[in-house]
Write a structure and sequence with these properties.
With 331 residues, this protein is mainly α. Helices cover 63% and strands 2% of the residues. It has a two-stranded antiparallel sheet with strand order 1-2. The two termini are 43 Å apart. It binds 3-hydroxybutanoyl-coenzyme A. The site of 3-hydroxybutanoyl-coenzyme A (3HC) has 29 residues, from helix 2, helix 4, helix 6 and helix 9. The site of 3-hydroxybutanoyl-coenzyme A has 29 residues, from helix 2, helix 4, helix 6 and helix 9.
Length: 331
C-alpha cells in the first residue's frame, strides 16, 4: 500500500525469517521501534494506516464542534470550545508528523482524505443540531478517545507513543468540560434536561462504534496486538468505556438509550455491564461514506484545502527564495 519509508532501508529484501523473528523478539521485550529502525513493511503500513486515519479524525473532528463556536451560550463556554477545537488541530499536526516519520508525505495523506480514499472516525459523520451535542461530544466522544488513546501511549512505535502522551493530557480537559456542560444542563430546566437526554440518545451508540468492529470482525486487531501497537482489543476497550461511562450518566439523572443495559456481577470476573447489540449495518454504512454528514465533512475539508492553497504556495515560495543553494556555501 505504501512504498518503502524515506527513512530506513528497503525492507522487502531483508525480510528473512530470521529478521522477522528478531523484530518480534524486540517487540516482545518491550523495546520501542524508532523511525530509523528496520521494520517489516507490513508493520510500517499498519502504522501509516492507523496514524493517518487518527490524524484525519482529529482534523475532521474539528468540524462538528466548530459549528457551535460562534453560538456558544456564554463567553466561558466559547473559550473552552475554542481551546478544544484548537487542541484537535494540534493533535492532527502531531499525528501527521508521526506518520511522516514512516516515510509517507502529508500531501499524500491529505490527498487520500480529500479523495475519500482514507477513513476517519465514523463518529464525526453525525450532525450537531443542539448545544447539548457539544457536551455529549466532549463527554462521550473524547471519553471514548481517551479510552482508546491511553493504551496507545504504550504503542511499540516510539513516535506514535510519544505523540499520544500530550494528546491524552489534552483529551482529559476535553472530556471534563463536556461532562460539566451536560451536568449543568441536567441541573437546568425541563427543556435543558430534555436537550441533554436527546443528545445522549443520539451519541451513545455511535460512541460505542468508535472502538471499531467486534473482535470477531476486526481484521487488523490480532496482528496489531501481536506487534503491541494495540494493547487491548476493540471489545475490551468498548467494555471499559461502557463500565466507566454508565455511572457518570446515572449520577446526573440521564437514562442510557439501551434497554438491555444491566450490571452483571460475574462479567469478566470483576463485574461489568451487559449491553445491547450494536447496529453494525449503521456502522458500516457510515464507515463506507453514507452517514448523515459524510458528504458535508469532505466538502468542508476540500473547500478549506482549496481556500488555503495560497498560504501553502506563499510558504513554499518563501522557503525556495531563502533556501541557501549548496553551491553558494561551497564557493
Ligand atoms: N470509523 C471508521 N473506520 C473504522 C472505525 C471507525 N470508528 N473502526 C474501525 N474502522 C475501520 C478500520 O480503519 C479498518 O479499515 P481499514 O483497514 O480500511 O483501515 C476496518 O474498519 C476494520 O477495523 P479494525 O478493527 O480491523 O481496524 P483497527 O485494528 O485499525 O481498529 C481503531 C480500529 C480502533 C479505530 C484503530 O484503528 C485505532 O485505535 N486507531 C487509533 C485511534 C483512533 O484513530 N481513534 C479514532 C478517534 S480519534 C478522536 O476521536 C479524536 C478525539 O480528539 C475526539
Amino acid at each position: 500500500m505504501y512504498s518503502q519509508g524515506l527513512i530506513g532501508a528497503d525492507t522487502q529484501t531483508h525480510e528473512t525469517p530470521e529478521f522477522l523473528e528478531a523484530f518480534q523478539a524486540k517487540i516482545d521485550s518491550e523495546q520501542k521501534i524508532e523511525a530509523n529502525d528496520p521494520m517489516p513493511q507490513a508493520y510500517r503500513n499498519t502504522l501509516i494506516r492507523m496514524i493517518s486515519q487518527h490524524a484525519h479524525s482529529e482534523i475532521v473532528g474539528m468540524l462538528p464542534e466548530g459549528n457551535w463556536i460562534t453560538r456558544a451560550p456564554t463567553l466561558r463556554r466559547k473559550v473552552a470550545l475554542l481551546a478544544k477545537v484548537q487542541d484537535e488541530g494540534g493533535h492532527g499536526l502531531y499525528l501527521y508528523s508521526a506518520a511522516e516519520t514512516l516515510g509517507v508525505s502529508r500531501e499524500q495523506l491529505t490527498d487520500e482524505l480529500l479523495s475519500g480514499k482514507a477513513k476517519y472516525s465514523s463518529i464525526f459523520n453525525y450532525p450537531t443540531p443542539t448545544w447539548a451535542d457539544i457536551g455529549a461530544i466532549g463527554w462521550l466522544v473524547d471519553g471514548a478517545a481517551i479510552m482508546n488513546q491511553v493504551p496507545l501511549c504504550r504503542c511499540s512505535y516510539g513516535p506514535y507513543a510519544r505523540a499520544m502522551i500530550r494528546v491524552c493530557k489534552e483529551e482529559s480537559f476535553h472530556q471534563r468540560q463536556g461532562y460539566e456542560l451536560i451536568t449543568s444542563l441536567m441541573q437546568g430546566n425541563d427543556q435543558q434536561q430534555a436537550m441533554a437526554q436527546d443528545a445522549l440518545n443520539r451519541w451513545w451508540w455511535p460512541s460505542l462504534m468508535m472502538f471499531g468492529p467486534s473482535d470477531t470482525d476486526s481484521q487488523h486487531s490480532d496482528q496489531s496486538m501481536a506487534w503491541k501497537i494495540k494493547r487491548f482489543t476493540n471489545d475490551e476497550l468498548r467494555q471499559k468505556f461502557v463500565d466507566a461511562t454508565v455511572p457518570q450518566a446515572e449520577l446526573i439523572g440521564l437514562t442510557l438509550p439501551d434497554p438491555d443495559l444491566r450490571w452483571n456481577d460475574t462479567k469478566n470476573g470483576e463485574g461489568g455491564y451487559d449491553f445491547g447489540e450494536i447496529d453494525w449495518d449503521e456502522f458500516w454504512r457510515v464507515v463506507k461514506g453514507h452517514g448523515m454528514m459524510n458528504k458535508d465533512r469532505l466538502a468542508a475539508r476540500r473547500k478549506a484545502h482549496a481556500d488555503g492553497a495560497w498560504v501553502r504556495e506563499a510558504a513554499l515560495a518563501h522557503a525556495a527564495r531563502h533556501a541557501t543553494p549548496d553551491v553558494a556555501l561551497a564557493s
